[in-house]
Amino acid sequence: MTTVFDHLAIGTTVLTDGWDLFGGILGGTWVYGDDSPGYWWGQLNYAAGPKIELLTPTGGPDAAFLERFLAAHGAGPHHFNFIVSDIEATLTRIRALGIEPVGVNLDNPSWKEAFLHPRSAHGIVIQVAQQSGAPDTPAPRDLPEPGPPTRFDLIEHHVSDLDGATRLFREALDGQLEGGGDHAAELTWPGGRRLRLVREDGLARGGALHHIRFTRAEGTFGASDRERAALLAKRLGLRVELAG
Length: 244
Fold this sequence. Notes:
alpha/beta, 2,3-Dihydroxybiphenyl 1,2-Dioxygenase, domain 1, eight-stranded mixed β-sheet, six-stranded mixed β-sheet
């Protein structure tokens, strides 16, 4: 069985902020996207690391989950996605940790999915999915030409229960523990995907995404890139570290 840390999804009502940051400045290249009931999504790829997915509501009753999220939190990180080769085996491992998945839908042979609620998943929604095939869709017209290629080096996520979070990402989602201690643990997946868990007491829902880090494959970020990235990241409810 294989597990891939596929993407970080970000909810927003202003897609151009995401395209400008994750495409124009950070060099993300279009992968695919599509309409789903109540929302639209699109993904960008990097030289290494997980993809970025942008989500925006499109109205109707099926948009309620995303509209509630945006009303409560504003734009910001919505979920981690893991693509697995055997979702039923993954759900068995998750349940063995005392976590009951929600929104389980195994009826569609091309996209089977389930979710872990933030209270169970240390502060962020986790989506696990088994995928067969992918849409072939053109890039949005307002997606700028990508900037210089970057590596999506790191997601740092702070949690109240470091041991429990490490068990979830290691035992159920196949993360390889690269370093650990009383205050932090780093887990990796193939393709340069890296998650750092840091203990922080008193967090609402048991956790919160702290920051994400990008490094240019060649060269460094200039002052204007850093200033613009900081502004766009704030609009998107994120902290983005530009390394180098």
